[in-house]
Amino acid sequence: PLALDDYTDNRRTGSFILIDPADGTTLTAGMAGEAFDTVSITDASTEEDWV
Length: 51
Prior knowledge:
By secondary structure, the protein is an all-beta fold. It is built from no helices and two strands.
């Protein structure tokens, strides 16, 4: 877990960079935002098929 603030509230504590310890390259970077309330999954039988 990462303790982060919302990026819009505090840019310094609301972002992160992940660095590879072996060679020092940046692996990824990100910004924290508002959490999702829930993820809704629709009924697959009502979905259209896309091919």
